Amino acid sequence: MHIVVCIKQVPDSAQIRVHPVTNTIMRQGVPTIVNPYDLFALEEALRLKDEYGARVTVLTMGPPMAEAALRKAISYGADDAVLVTDRIFAGSDTLATSYALAAAIQQISKDITVDLVFTGKQTIDGDTAQVGPGVAKRLEMQLLTYVSKIRSLDTDKQEIVVERRSEGGVQVLKTKIPSLITVLEGNNEMRFATMANMFRAARYPVKIWNKDAAGIEDPTKTGLKGSPTVVSKVFAPTPRATKAEIIQCESNEPKDLSVTLLAKMFTKFPNIEKELLKRSA
Amino acid sequence: KKFELDERLKAYKGVWVFIEHERGAIHPVSLELLGEGRKLADMLGVELAGVVMGPPGETTRSFCQEAFYHGADLCYLIEDPLLQDYRNEPYTKGLTDLVNKYQPEILFLGATTLGRDLAGSVATTLKTGLTADCTELNIDLDVRSLLASRPTFGGSLLCTIQTLNYRPQMATVRPRVMAMPERDATRNGRIIEDTLSMIEDSIITKVLEFIPDEMQDKPQLPFADIIVAGGRGMKKPENFKLIWELAQVLGAEVGATRPVVQAGWVELDRQVGQSGKTVRSKLYIAVGISGAIQHRVGMDASDVIIAINNDPNAPIFDFAHYGIVGNAMTILPALTEAFKAHLATARKAG
Ligand SMILES: Cc1cc2nc3c(=O)[nH]c(=O)nc-3n(C[C@H](O)[C@H](O)[C@H](O)COP(=O)(O)OP(=O)(O)OC[C@H]3O[C@@H](n4cnc5c(N)ncnc54)[C@H](O)[C@@H]3O)c2cc1C
Ligand SMILES: Cc1cc2nc3c(=O)[nH]c(=O)nc-3n(C[C@H](O)[C@H](O)[C@H](O)COP(=O)(O)OP(=O)(O)OC[C@H]3O[C@@H](n4cnc5c(N)ncnc54)[C@H](O)[C@@H]3O)c2cc1C
């Protein structure tokens, strides 16, 4: 069993600040982390490794510094790590990203056949949840999204049974390997890195692939060139025509402010009063 | 230099909405998309179509009728037993084939677990662009291009994404982001039937079982009419009981910002915003919430927003309707009492 886990390095959003005057993002000095959702995918792969025996390869496409994310994954117990990095990938949207990742997975598969590909549910920066389905289609793998649980894996029959979160319930699906699974958060917790794995991670020679090593046949399908979507404008949300009416009264005591607010609101929006009376009756 | 659409792509005409349904009911997001799609189709001077795929029968056909009532001019319909439950393979095949045959310029899907699964697959198969979780949709009439806007990472900003020289232009929108259009049962439309060229043996993934949510305790934020939401300004988990007390008096759902959810003060299902739920309440009371864009996009379609914050410059006051500047811990109990007293009096007065 060979599992490839796709991980993405993202800026740690908890530490992002918006410039108070210019209203722009201050990204400088913001530390990067492994996309939190991808850790659930990695842990699930490591769990299968413990239970069935498997080789776990982590893969990322990104700038050279994304190597740090891969080392982190090795420290948790991944066996192998591949960084796909090349200037031509800059500006990739999800269609171009799935092309590059699919090519790299095929390349990885030449050494040891890949049975399962895991991704996170979505990232915390692009936040599209589109890369998983894209990679699956390109590799013609069975696609299982929002998987909350892998019920069973039969390596002889090449069969897998999973629980998939769907609207209003859980679908139990049976399918064949190879398949691509996007793992839902919250159903496992990342293990601690062992001392031995931390040492291994520090010395581990991450494979660094440029476009040729990654098996990219058509460079025009990558980067900005290969991306159908273009960001045409960045703008601030339209301010409401009027700002909030700040409630004030003579005393400015909480009680009087509250009473004043209700009087104003119910006069202007009588339907809200009706709605409230309807429900608390 | 002015953008000129590829000659081959000029044949793509019309706006489509994929009509999502599960267990015999249309997902409301599809109807909301028809409302928005109607506006864009009118701007472009083209027809609005629903795409209905499902098992043969009256129920599936009734979805076409609902689509007409909500603004569609026509529906593309595929009835096939293989479409009984949602599965990626047959749905991707059916929708991709329809697009290739009838060539729409725009295709919308709901950003649900089903819609995201299908949209990502269809866009990759068609090799076209897909914009996720849009909060605003518009048309650049000069170049006949969809302007799909969504919040950008980290900042108080939005970005507009275009898919220029590819068709169809695809986008997903989350439930409750767009307004539900009026249902007009006098409207009608035409149905164009097509077929799914697949057999069960060729579909590798099988549905073994469906376990419905029991729905008992799960908060139903997206459909709540009244919401009281608390943010980091509540300071301590103990203080959050002030939020619950007001919610109880109003019969409201409780919402929260992401930091509050991450701190474990309330469960994940109560998070409002870009990475939580989108709501469209009649009344939204935001307490100790700064009003960051990721929170705002999840709630600013609410009819009336009241903000309570001790910082008069908090961004929330830029888009709330009413504001009280002050300490939440003293304002909230007073507000709860005022609501209680007001509602009691109003009820007595009949
Ligand atoms: C604000 C913003 C908005 C954007 N909007 C769009 C849009 O609407 N449409 C569009 O096509 N592109 C969009 N992009 C570009 C998009 O973010 C990139 O294409 C990115 O490479 C992957 O998309 P994602 O971050 O949304 O990943 P998702 O699709 O959310 O990621 C799903 C999973 O795929 C895997 N994965 C994703 N990226 C990588 C990677 N580089 N290496 C390894 N594994 C990976 C991870 O396991 C991840 O959990 C946007 C980017 C930004 C910053
Ligand atoms: C990719 C991404 C996705 C995100 N998704 C979401 C999301 O879905 N939902 C979400 O909410 N956020 C989301 N965020 C986080 C968002 O950017 C903000 O950090 C968050 O909304 C802020 O929460 P807050 O208003 O509770 O806290 P803060 O911004 O810290 O605001 C607290 C407010 O309370 C006020 N306050 C302090 N003390 C008092 C007092 N005693 N009385 C009254 N007021 C007081 C302060 O003046 C301040 O305005 C996301 C961020 C990123 C990067």
What does this structure look like?
The complex is a heterodimer of chains A (281) and B (350). Chain A is built from 7 helices and 15 strands. Chain A is α/β, with parallel strands linked by helices. In chain A, strands 11-10-9-12-8-1-6-7-13 form a 9-stranded mixed β-sheet, with helices on both faces. Chain A has a two-stranded antiparallel sheet with strand order 2-5. In chain A, strand 10 and strand 11 form a beta hairpin. In chain A, helix 2 packs antiparallel against helix 5, helix 3 crosses helix 4 and helix 6 crosses helix 7. The termini of chain A are far apart. Chain B folds into 2 domains: 196 residues, HUPs (Rossmann fold, 3-Layer(aba) Sandwich), CATH 3.40.50.620; 129 residues, TPP-binding domain (Rossmann fold, 3-Layer(aba) Sandwich), CATH 3.40.50.1220. Helix content of chain B is 30%, strand content 26%. Chain B is built from 9 helices and 18 strands. In chain B, helix 3 packs across helix 4. The mean pLDDT of chain B is 94. Chains A and B meet through helix 3, helix 4, strand 9, strand 10 and strand 11 of A and helix 3, helix 4, strand 7, strand 10 and strand 13 of B. One flavin-adenine dinucleotide sits at the interface of chains B and A. Chain A: This is Protein FixA. Chain A: Keywords: Electron transport, Transport. Chain A: Belongs to the ETF beta-subunit/FixA family.
- Main β-sheet, spatial strand arrangement of chain A: 11-10-9-12-8-1-6-7-13
Q: How much helical structure, as a percent, in the residues of chain B?
A: 25-40%
CATH architecture of the largest domain in chain A: 3-Layer(aba) Sandwich
Multimeric state of these chains? Answer: heterodimer
Outline type of chain B: globular
Bulk shape of chain A: elongated
Average pLDDT taken over every residue of chain B: 94
The main β sheet of chain B shows up as:
7 strands, parallel
* CATH level-4 homologous superfamily of the largest domain in chain A: HUPs
CATH class of the largest domain in chain B: Alpha Beta
- Note the main sheet of chain A: 9 strands, mixed
For the CA atoms, what is the radius of gyration of chain A? 24 Å
CATH fold topology of the largest domain in chain A: Rossmann fold
* Distinct helical segment count of chain A: 7
Number of domains of chain B: 2
Q: What string gives the helices and strands of chain A in order?
A: EEEEEHEHEHEHEEEEHEEEHH
Total strand segments of chain A: 15
Low-confidence stretches of chain B: none
> Widest sheet of chain B: strand order?
7-11-6-1-4-5-12
Protein name (chain A): Protein FixA
InterPro entries (chain A): ET-Flavoprotein_bsu_CS, ETF_a/b_N, ETF_b, ETF_beta_N, Rossmann-like_a/b/a_fold
Family (chain A): Belongs to the ETF beta-subunit/FixA family.
Keywords (chain A): Electron transport, Transport
